[in-house]
Design brief:
Largest sheet: 7 strands, mixed
Oligomer: single chain
Structural class: mainly beta
Low-confidence stretches: none
Radius of gyration: 13 Å
Shape: globular
Number of helices: 0
Strand content: over 45%
Mean pLDDT: 97
Length: 124
Amino acid sequence: VQLQASGGGLVQAGGSLRLSCAASSHTFEGYAAGWFRQAPGKERTFVAAISGRGGTFEYADSVKGRFTISRDNAKSAVYLQMDSLKPEDTAVYYCAADLNPFTVPRGPLEYDYWGQGTQVTVSS
């Protein structure tokens, strides 16, 4: 499956952005999906994950209560609503898909497909 992330941009601290990830698969509910981010000079880290049918979620502690992951399998898409953004949220954000739809993996090695990144910059 091919993934296409979009929706990044420049926003002031306290603002919001909504990232989208479009998948080429018409059976997207057969994949768990996740978002990761990578700041300059740092490792790629887990942000959020959602199971194939959207009933199970996982969030990194740093974004819990501010970010919301969701999906629309009819549109083969997964979203990341980011509110109360902070400068430390600045990073390239990547979406990923896992062939096992029943999990919400936190490790990047557990994902089978990756989209290109979309830059999110939060100014102070």
